[in-house]
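G., the chain you wanted modeled:
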Amino acid sequence: MEVGLQPSRSVLLSGPPGVGKSMTASYIAEQMKQTLVVVDLASVMSSYLGRTGRNLRAVLDYAAETECVLFIDEFDALAKRRDDNTDVGELKRLVNVLLLELDRWPAGSFLIAATNHLDLVDPAIARRFDVKIELPMPDYEQRRALLAQIPVIASSSVEAEYTSLLALATDGTSHSDIVKLVNGIAREAIIEDANLASFAERMANYSMFSLRNQSKSDTEVRSRVIRVAHDSLGYSQRKIAQILGVSHPTVSRVLAAREK
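Predicted structure as tokens:
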């Protein structure tokens, strides 16, 4: 404070659906030991002229007067670019409200906004956030770490080879969708077998079939899948060839090349 610096008061989270924007907001509020206040856009937005702006100002005034973390999801619905000619004047007025409130946002409260479409947010508003964080899709190592922490996997003592294979098969999949996928496979195992005895095998089968298309265009992925399926999962060369849609000699060559 002596040098004119203040703590950050706002953060703008962006990224595709399911990468953890809402969870990040909850985590920030927990670390700050403050209440998380989530804006319900359905109750803020109104078809009546001027009412949406008044509703939004009321929410922001409440949060500014209360030490809390205010979370606005789908922020682009309120802060849409003003150069969009298809928009009505009401939304442009909302941007003006947000600009004013962001400029005078108090240090005692914290504002978190999240959007799946950062390109739709008005640049003037985006610039006013103290911190901007882009949350990308998880890479292979992040997917593998996430899978190992999912309760049904951790409690079932699933071997690392199975999670590694599924991590490879879920390239381009969000954190949320990965968790839903694993829980769905576990439910199928319980419904059909009344237990999780086949859970790991079901994960492996899903992974192998999902990797079939990838392996056709990427020989490195195919080789890696063949080695994991043969060495760690105990699949026969014929079964691997059938699942991946390649010839038996192709599988044999990959395994033989590794031994040279």
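The mean pLDDT is 87.

Shout if anything looks off.
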